[in-house]
């Protein structure tokens, strides 16, 4: 199983980026896929998650209302649309997948599969 994250880059504050996480090796119809991020010197932070079955979404407090997570089952791909970006959104963003119960969705240690990370830099 492989997760390939892409779409990162350099953007000015207030701008937008869309990250993609393409899954290969199996279908993720019963899985939850999430985005986490980690900035230098900081702990890993939950950003957003989506359940492939049913499409329920979950967001971290710092991105709620600005970021949108979605899934394309036909492409086995999850997207993270990031709007109104702030300098504090600067981090390496990782996608992850696993079979989780709702109460553990924000816990990175519960995910089995991880992508390689993509850098997002927001300039002020």
How would you sum up this structure, described in words?
The protein is mainly beta and 124 residues long. Helices cover 0% and strands 50% of the residues. Strands 2, 4, 5, 6, 9, 10 and 11 form a seven-stranded mixed beta sheet that branches. A four-stranded antiparallel beta sheet has the order 1-3-8-7, with no helix packed on it. A hairpin with a 6-residue loop joins strand 4 and strand 5. The mean pLDDT is 94.
Q: List the uncertain runs.
A: none
Number of strands: 11
Beta-strand portion reads: over 45%
Topology as H/E string?
EEEEEEEEEEE
What level of helicity do the residues show?
under 10%
Tell me the span between the first and last alpha carbons: 37 Å
Query: Largest beta sheet, briefly?
Result: 7 strands, mixed
Helical run tally: 0
Q: Kindly state the mean pLDDT as a whole number?
A: 94
Silhouette: globular
Rg, please? 13 Å
Q: Helix/strand-derived class?
A: mainly beta
What is this entry, summarized?
Helices cover 0% and strands 50% of the residues. The protein is mainly β.
Secondary structure topology:
Layout: E1 2-6, E2 9-12, E3 17-24, E4 32-38, E5 45-51, E6 57-59, E7 67-72, E8 77-82, E9 91-98, E10 113-114, E11 118-123
Parallel strand pairs: 2-11
Antiparallel strand pairs: 1-3, 3-8, 4-5, 4-9, 5-6, 7-8, 9-10, 9-11
């Amino acid at each position: 199983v492989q997760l390939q994250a892409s779409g990162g880059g350099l953007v000015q504050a207030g701008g937008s980026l869309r990250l993609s996480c393409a899954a290969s090796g199996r279908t993720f119809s019963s899985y939850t896929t999430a985005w986490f991020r980690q900035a230098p010197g900081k702990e890993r932070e939950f950003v957003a998650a989506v359940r492939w079955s049913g499409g329920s979404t979950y967001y971290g407090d710092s991105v709620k209302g600005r970021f949108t997570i979605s899934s394309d089952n036909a492409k086995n791909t999850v997207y993270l649309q990031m709007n109104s970006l702030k300098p504090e959104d600067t981090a390496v963003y990782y996608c992850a997948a696993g079979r989780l119960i709702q109460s553990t969705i924000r816990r990175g240690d519960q995910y089995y599969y991880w992508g390689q990370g993509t850098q997002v830099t927001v300039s002020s």
